[in-house]
Please model this.
Amino acid sequence: MNRQAAFDAGQIQGLSVRALIDQRAGSMPDAVFLVDPASGQTTSYRQLRDRCRSVVARIDQHGVKSGDAVAFALTNGPHSAICVLGIMYGGYLATAINLVAGNDTISYVLSHSRTQLVLTQQQTQSLIAKALESSEDPPPTVAVDSGFWDITGSDLDLPPLDHHDDGLLMYTSGTTGRPKGVVLRQSSVLAGGTNAALAHQLTAADRALCVLPLYHINGLCVTILGPLVSGGSVAVPQKFSVSSFWPTIRDHACTWFSVVPTQISYLLHDVENASSNPADIAGLRFGRSASAPLSPDVHAAFETKFRLPIIETMGLTETAAQILSNPLPPGERKIGSPGVAVGNEVIIADDSQREVATGVEGEVLVRGPNVMRVYLDNEEATAASLTGDGWLRTGDLGRMDEDGYVFITGRLKELIIKGGENIAPREVDDALYAHPDVIEAAAFACACERYGQRIEAGVALSAGSSVCEQDLIALCNEKIGAFKSPDRIHFMDELPKGPSGKIQRIRLQELFGQ
Model:
């Protein structure tokens, strides 16, 4: 198959998700877009358009208006991908529900977004039902089962949809504790896919493997919208599996994949049990790492073992995923750097957002069509993050070398990044404070070979308390989910504080983080 580009980056910027899907259905109707590894069934671009219209018809039955939030609480798979694209196709605001966020967070997202309808599955119905228990006016839920697709949307009179209209609402953790709702325009979502397609030279001949959840910006914008933009295809298993990873790539002729460092580590440590060697898989071009810094040692070990290039990148929810990428071979890849800007501008700036000289450390700023419009109903956070001339302050510290490669050196914000997932320390604090015996609590990050960072916490208890570590961890599991819960809790008479009385997380890291 010829490696021929199926898109023009400039033209994509003027399209909505609907316009691009319609364009693909008209120009390459029988080309495969989605592959279900479990059944082997495929979805062509024409079928994608028709099923997106079915999604719109099903939503329309509930009287949801254009621009309203429609949430998706779905595990991965081709039908889930169609639902997410179908929500945006209809002009609704596709609102992602992080299935491992914990009940309190899911409840908050459904309320804060003013969700009018929730698409669920058998696996997620009870999760959403519990999250809606305290809602005074809960939105209806619709199960995406076999009967969901019985309706046709062929005769729908769709409202106009502009590329500047909002398309995606995805929540990201912040240092204030409550997640912030990142609003991305239709054009921004497609710009995210375009940036990935440009950086990785994707064409209609490429097929991705999508193992990252669609409620994360990486899984959605890189491995679903990247192929949509490039006219390629994507295999979408229900979840990441070490044992089936390489066989799925081999059996379904995938040419690339996107994973997070934790998954790279799992694959590396399973090398002796791997039933397929990627070096022997015809057509496999590269793997892609994002969402958290990739350890140079793990990076080098993976490439040595598997003889497959790993392209390190960097992206944010606020930028529809990718902002930086290393080039493909034979271009120069700099280990330890997420690469150079592709499809957007990136600078290193001082405290006044003025660009600094090469090699000088400062904050990483990004500007381009992929940048978010606002944080939903949060003017203060929006003003703090977006400058008047369109730069997004990422909160990351870094420096840029003479070739334009960025090296991340730290974070201005206090986010914990565990396995590519952003976790606000205050979310953990609040869960710990829910116990009546907890007087002081502060979560902090510790280095972790498996996840990049793990969560620990310092806690001071009331006199005479018999609460133990496992009691508090169990409470956190209930409140915010096991993934965000501390691995260890350090009991102290009093937590370290600064002159103003504020608890110093950095001192806790110094005491316990090594």
About this structure: The two ends are 52 Å apart (CA to CA).
